[in-house]
C-alpha cells in the first residue's frame, strides 16, 4: 500500500475483516469454485458496501466542520440508509433527497425496506415527485440549510467519489490478506457495479498491491461501454490520490451491461431466480437491485461458458437485502 494511504483521515465503523466463505452447493450447481466476500456483514444498520466508503466520508465531513450529511438516491437506496445510520452514530443531521424509480413494484416500495429504516434512523426524507429535478432540488436544499445556520456536507450518489472509493482500496488489501492466509487462488472477482466507487476502489487497491486479479463489474444501470468509462474515470482519479501513475489503470476495467434488464431497480426473472437460488442453496440473501442482478450475470456467464468451468471466482456481496422487503410482490 502507498505510504500516504494510512495517513488519510478515517473513522472506524466496519466490522472487519468481513468473512470470506466457500459456497459449496452453489459451486456444484455452477461448475466452478465460488467464494463470497461477505460485505453484507459490515455492520451499520444491516451492513453493505457503503459502510466502508462512509468511514472516509464521515472523517472528511468532520474535518470540514459539517453538522449535516446530505445525499441523493432512489427511494430504496441502500446508500441512503447507511448514510442515515452513520449520521446517527456520529451526531450529524441527515437529509436524504430520494426519487421514485419508474417500473419498480409499488405495493411496499414507499413504506417498507430501506424507506422504513431511513425513518427509524431519524433522517429528514425529501421525496421528489416526477416534476421535480433532483439537481435543482438539491441545490436549493443546500442553500436553505446554509441560510438556517447548518453546515452541510454533500455525499454523491452511492458515496462514489475518490474519498468514498478509498474504502474499497482498504477492502482490496483485506481480500488479499485473506486469500493469502487461506491459500486460495482467485481467477476473477465479480461484483455489482453501479455508481462505480466500489469497483474503482477495489481495482485501485489491487493495483497498489501489485495484484493482477481481474475484476468484472456486472452493470446494474448502464451499457458495458458507459459503465467501463465511469469506472475508468474514477479509478484514475483514485490512483492519483494514492500517488500512483493513473496509466496503471489502463486495461484493468471490465464491465458487462447485459443483465440489468429494462433499467435500474426494475426486476428481471433472472434476478428473482438468482436471489432464490442463493437463498435456497446457501442461506444467503441477495438484493433485487444490485447483488441479485450481479449473481444472475455470474450464473449465466458460467452456464454459457464465458466463464470457464472450474474457474475460481470471488463474488463480492455488497449487501442490500433490506430492499427485498420493498420488493415483496416480485417474489
Strand/helix succession: EHEHEHEHEHEHEHEHEHHE
What about the largest sheet? 6 strands, mixed
Can you count the beta strands? Answer: 10
Highest CATH level, the class of the largest domain: Alpha Beta
CATH topology of the largest domain: Rossmann fold
Q: Which tags fit this structure?
A:
4-stranded parallel beta sheet; 331 residues; Rossmann fold; 6-stranded mixed beta sheet; 2 domains; 10 helices; 10 strands; alpha/beta
Please give the structural blueprint.
Layout (H helix, E strand, L loop, with lengths): L19 E3 L1 H7 L2 E6 L11 H14 L4 E7 L3 H13 L2 E7 L14 H7 L3 E5 L5 H14 L4 E4 L6 H20 L6 E6 L3 H12 L6 E5 L4 H18 L12 E3 L12 H14 L8 H13 L8 E6 L14
Parallel strand pairs: 2-10, 3-4, 3-6, 4-5, 7-8, 7-10, 8-9
Antiparallel strand pairs: 1-2
Helix pairs in contact: 2-3, 2-6, 3-4, 6-7, 6-8, 7-8, 9-10
Structure overview:
The protein has 331 residues and is of the alpha/beta class. It has 2 domains: 3-49 and 161-330, 3-Layer(aba) Sandwich (Rossmann fold), CATH 3.40.50.1100; 50-159, Rossmann fold (3-Layer(aba) Sandwich). Helix content is 40%, strand content 16%. It has 10 helices and 10 strands. The strands form 2 sheets. A 6-stranded mixed beta sheet has the order 1-2-10-7-8-9, with helices on both faces. Helix 3 (78-90) links the parallel strand 3 and strand 4 (93-99). Helix 7 crosses helix 8. The radius of gyration is 19 Å and the shape is globular. 50% of the residues are buried. The mean pLDDT is 96.
Amino acid at each position: 500500500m502507498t505510504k500516504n494511504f494510512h495517513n488519510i483521515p478515517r473513522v472506524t465503523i466496519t466490522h472487519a475483516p468481513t468473512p470470506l466463505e466457500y459456497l459449496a452447493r452453489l459451486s456444484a450447481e455452477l461448475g466452478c469454485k465460488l467464494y463470497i466476500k461477505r460485505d453484507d456483514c459490515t455492520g451499520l444498520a444491516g451492513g453493505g458496501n457503503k459502510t466502508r466508503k462512509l468511514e472516509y466520508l464521515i472523517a472528511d465531513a468532520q474535518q470540514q466542520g459539517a453538522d449535516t450529511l446530505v445525499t441523493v438516491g432512489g427511494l430504496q437506496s441502500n446508500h441512503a440508509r447507511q448514510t442515515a445510520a452513520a449520521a446517527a452514530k456520529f451526531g450529524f443531521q441527515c437529509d436524504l433527497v430520494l426519487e421514485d424509480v419508474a417500473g419498480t413494484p409499488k405495493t411496499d416500495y414507499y413504506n417498507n425496506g430501506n424507506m422504513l429504516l431511513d425513518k427509524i434512523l431519524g433522517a429528514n426524507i425529501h421525496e421528489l415527485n416526477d416534476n421535480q429535478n433532483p439537481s435543482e432540488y438539491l441545490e436549493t436544499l443546500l442553500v436553505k440549510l446554509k441560510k438556517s445556520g447548518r453546515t452541510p456536507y454533500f455525499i454523491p450518489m452511492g458515496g462514489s467519489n475518490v474519498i468514498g472509493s478509498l474504502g474499497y482500496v482498504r477492502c482490496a488489501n483485506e481480500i488479499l490478506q485473506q486469500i493469502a492466509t487461506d491459500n486460495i487462488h482467485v481467477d476473477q472477482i465479480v461484483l455489482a457495479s453501479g455508481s462505480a466507487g466500489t469497483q474503482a476502489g477495489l481495482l485501485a487497491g489491487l493495483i497498489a498491491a501489485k495484484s493482477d486479479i481481474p475484476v468484472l463489474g456486472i452493470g446494474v444501470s448502464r451499457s458495458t461501454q458507459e459503465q467501463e468509462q465511469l469506472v475508468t474515470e474514477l479509478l484514475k482519479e483514485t490512483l492519483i490520490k494514492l500517488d500512483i501513475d493513473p496509466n496503471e489503470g489502463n486495461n484493468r476495467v471490465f464491465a458487462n451491461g447485459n443483465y440489468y434488464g429494462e433499467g435500474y431497480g426494475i426486476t428481471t426473472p433472472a434476478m428473482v431466480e438468482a436471489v432464490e437460488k442463493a437463498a435456497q442453496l446457501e442461506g444467503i440473501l441477495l438484493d433485487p437491485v444490485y447483488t441479485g442482478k450481479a449473481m444472475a450475470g455470474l450464473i449465466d456467464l458460467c452456464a454459457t461458458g464465458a466463464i470457464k468451468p472450474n474457474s475460481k471466482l470471488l463474488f463480492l456481496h455488497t449487501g442490500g437485502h433490506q430492499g427485498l422487503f420493498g420488493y415483496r410482490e416480485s417474489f
